[in-house]
Amino acid sequence: MSLEGSQAPEFELETTNGATVSLSETLADGPTVVSINRGHWCSFCAEQIATFSRVYEDLQFNHDVDVLPVVTSDDADVAAMKERFDYRFPLLADPDGAVAEQYSGTEQTDLGGVTGISAIYVVDEDGEVVFEHVAEDLTDRVYGNYIRYFVADEYGGALEDPGF
């Protein structure tokens, strides 16, 4: 099920800094990137989140874009992940996979129990999903720099057919 072109599901989760954040709260300030991650144990997820951490200030200060990395693990494991990799933004714990299920879905794994299927969503100020990438396998990723250019290009407008 694709969410692109539809309203993003609302959610509210606790962050690694102890606050509670909701999607609608972040959309009040501008677009939001929602990143669904398999779990604290996923090295591919850690790498992908790191790429968003590196471009976070540019997204936040030049484009009013917030980043909400949702990790399908419990609070303590997600906090340890943030500390270990020194990300520049808080992570959000989704221990039962409820948010992941609304977005890209979940699956049962031998190692991690319920895990979210990795995905990236760009949600515009009106709450519409304007970009979606759901991983086809563990290594299939979209990185922060691509999303930074996508947002700077007003959601890929320059990539549209010029009509020659």
Automatic annotation (TrEMBL):
Start and end residues of each Thioredoxin domain: 2-156
One example of a Gene Ontology biological process annotation: cytochrome complex assembly
Keyword terms of this UniProt record: Cytochrome c-type biogenesis, Disulfide bond, Redox-active center
Compartments, record wording: Cell envelope
Gene3D superfamilies in UniProt: Glutaredoxin
Pfam families: AhpC-TSA (PF00578)
Entry GO MF terms: antioxidant activity; oxidoreductase activity
Chief localisation class: other
Name of the protein in question: Peroxiredoxin
